[in-house]
Amino acid sequence: MTANYFLSLSIWLPILAGVVVLVTGSPKNSGCTTRWIALVGAVLGFAVTVPLYLYFSNDTASMQFVEMAPWIPAFNINYHLGIDGISLWFVLLNSFMTLLVVIAGWVVIEKRLAQYMAAFLIMSGLINGVFAALDAILFYVFFEAMLIPMFLIIGVWGGPRRVYAAIKFFLYTLLGSLLMLAAFIYLYFEAGGSFEIIKFQILPLPLGVQVLIFLAFFMSFAVKVPMWPLHTWLPDAHVEAPTGGSVILAAITLKIGAYGFLRFNLPITPDASHALSGFIIALSLIAVVYIGLVALVQNDMKKLVAYSSIAHMGFVTLGFFMFNPMGVEGGLLQMISHGFISGAMFLCIGVLYDRMHSRQISDYGGVVNTMPTFAAFFMLFAMANAGLPGTSGFIGEFIVILSAIQVNFWYAALAATTLIFGAAYTLWMYKRVVFGAVANPHVAELKDINKRETLFLALLAILVLAMGLYPKPFTDTMHATVQQLIEQTSVPKY
What we know:
Layout: H1 6-24, H2 31-47, H3 50-54, E1 64-72, E2 77-83, H4 88-104, H5 113-132, H6 136-145, H7 147-157, H8 162-190, H9 197-200, H10 207-224, H11 233-240, H12 243-268, H13 270-275, H14 277-296, H15 301-320, H16 325-356, H17 367-370, H18 372-385, H19 392-407, H20 409-434, H21 441-444, H22 451-469, H23 472-489
Antiparallel strand pairs: 1-2
């Protein structure tokens, strides 16, 4: 489909809204004005992405809504945008979660409100640019620029160790991406002076070169996922980040790393991907099994969900390197589902933290007695996090396990342990926080969720159930693109 400028609107409208929030958010204006401007910007930012789904053609693997304009002609760098069945859902997911974060922070954020809202709006536009960019330098600019708002969100509105967590997050992701830039420059000369990603994908590169390029991309994207053992920045970032930062970090930014594997590693270096698949599968299974065990011993709710995210993202990379359509589609479904569930889990923890200013499991107990509506929502999301059939958490994991068993029984057996560990650490946390008698006077004074909190939790609950019961709209859009990707990676380049 032709452009219609929906992609440009999805990028620049939130950024513009963020700038407006910054400009109008002076001390002379009320916080109410800032909140409403931010909400309007977030609503419009999501609204312009809806036509991407409504007018998306499921019958083709070609890029759709393509926009092309010269940017830096001297180096043949273009403002080139487009989406396919892989990137479509992440633009929608990002814009939707940004809207929920604005609603969630409506009355919670009091310090530097305008800067807080602006950071999320600007980051939303930059992330959409990452998923839509078809020029490597444009991708790199968006990829790096999105670090700045998240760095500020953690460093300014985070917890006591926020500066340490923010610097660690920034250094890990920045150092990895420098290798990606080096790979882009090499591919630029190999492609005859072009940074077009599609041209990179058809270069006949020898295996040795492919391995080096694969590793350069791997260092950048594995940190973002994050894969074991490059994951240590994530628990620190989650624990120190404000609720909105944790939501976007888990629901969106982790997906950029996995998206990079599909957009760059598999199609540009298919032979190296096959040669190194055992290495990636091993790291993925370690994440699923070992990190699942680490989650079992956490006392901080945020840290537990952070480790849970690493384990669930291990399923994603496992599915991608099975090299069959079922595995890739299962991984993509897991990415989307994890966006809903992890975002919901962090929002639930944020609801409790706003009331008691504690994330320690031992500080709670008997919450169901004072917050029954909240406890019902939290139960649904906990069950989805554990992979309960009928929720979105089951779909992706089940399909990846089916894919893995076609390749190696033991891959599937080890991967399936997440259904045990996931249930163990999630239900252990839920039981200690929610069930039992009221543990202390602080819990006895808790008030149930209000209309605003009910709104964002209800929206996520609907999506978790809808995707779990009827995933067909998701699979229909991605099938043609995934099929083409698998065919592309099955043809040797040397």
